[in-house]
Amino acid sequence: MSSPSIPLASHLLHAVAWLVGRLPRSLQIRLGAWSGRRAFARNTREAKVARRNLELVMPQLSSDEREALVREVMQQTGRNAIESLRIWTRPRRDNLALVAAVHGEAVLAAAEAGGRGVIIAAPHHGNIEMVVEFMAARGPFTLVYKPPENRAGDGFLRLARGRHNVGLVPAEASAMRPLLRALQAGQAVGITPDQQPKEGGGQFAPFFGRPALTMTLIPKLAQRTGAAVVFACALRRDDGRFEMWFEAAGPAVADADLAVATQALNAGVEAIARRDTRQYQWTYKRWSKRPADSGLPNPYHPDCY
To answer: Fewer CB atoms near the end CB (10 Å): N or C, the chain?
Structure first.
């Protein structure tokens, strides 16, 4: 099936991204941090969501400590946005030159050598786009992504991410088939395990001590194919370079009992998020969906909308 055409507006957005991506690296770092501080000062919706999430998961922090952390989170969020524009519009060799260290590469190599494919579980921590670049440099990489609601945004993402060795699969019910094909061919697929699925596409499991609707796609793929599951992230250093981390997921992630599997999946994501809490995507409404008949309110309503 042919890919949908890319609107002119998508090409214009990509041209703007190209221009930002060509700014000096030091200026990009300052621009990203400045945009984050600006969002914090304006108390944008993202800042409000980050504050609410940190209230939920770190109630022990004082108000001053939490505000300082929210400010840091927003700065990292701004840096992440500018970095992504650079990564999407620069040659891969330039992007990989920013990798200062790789931790757990032997874990990744062993998973690849297993011959049953590799499921890269990459939470929204650090910069996911660096994980995509690193994996695509090793071979074909199929990435599940959530398409924006408008055609221009979706077209832009397909232009930005659809680079050599990267195949894009929308996060829809039909995603299972191309992912199975890739894994059965011994290739790697990338999935963000902390993306809240649609109703009926997940199961509630604890995440930072609170029930969060959690995708079952990764456990089901692992069960059906025997593919190894590897957690991955690219942590940002203060100097603008990255450290890649790869860690093998425990066997519980592929448990036939989805309650066990999703709990193990969330535990792995939580451990990664705690490595540097500033770099996790606290701007995402992770707990907006509540278990039926739980009596738990939507923690983001009405202040974060």
So the answer is: N
